[in-house]
Amino acid sequence: MAVVLTENALKRARAFIGSPGPAAAAGVGLRIGIRRTGCSGMAYVVSVAESTTPEDVVFEQGGVQVIVDREALAVIDGTEVDFVREGLNEAFRFRNPKAKGECGCGESFSV
């Protein structure tokens, strides 16, 4: 069971976790999860993790702790996370082998 970050995603995660602000000051890693939303049902959520819980699975990659709760991991196990820049936009992108479909704008997915 794993979620894998590309080199671009690792670089962005390191900057994200180390950026100034109250959440980053106590950050222990990058939390990746899902929430129910959108026309396809689920969306990815990325944030700085301030702590871990017993329900979390922690992966270490390139000096970055990637934290995923067990419920979300059942849906995103095997996902590759990339970080891309397109013009003025930048975002984490997800390649989830379990995703059966995405909405037209790419903001939500279904399994």
Strand content: over 45%
- Please write the CATH class name: Mainly Beta
Global morphology: globular
- Number-wise, the strands total 9
How many domains? The number is: 1
> What is the percent of helical residues?
10-25%
CATH fold group: Hypothetical Protein Aq_1857, Chain: A
How far do the termini sit from each other? 17 Å
Task: Please characterize this protein's 3D structure.
- The protein is α/β, with parallel strands linked by helices and 111 residues long.
- It has one domain (4-103): HesB-like domain (Hypothetical Protein Aq_1857, Chain: A, Sandwich).
- The chain is 21% helix and 45% strand.
- It contains 3 helices and 9 strands, in the order βααββββαββββ.
- The strands form 3 sheets. The chain has a 4-stranded mixed β-sheet. It has a 3-stranded mixed β-sheet with strand order 1-6-7. It has a two-stranded antiparallel sheet with strand order 8-9.
- The longest helix has 12 residues, at 7-18.
- The two termini are 17 Å apart.
- The model has no long low-confidence stretch (mean pLDDT 83).
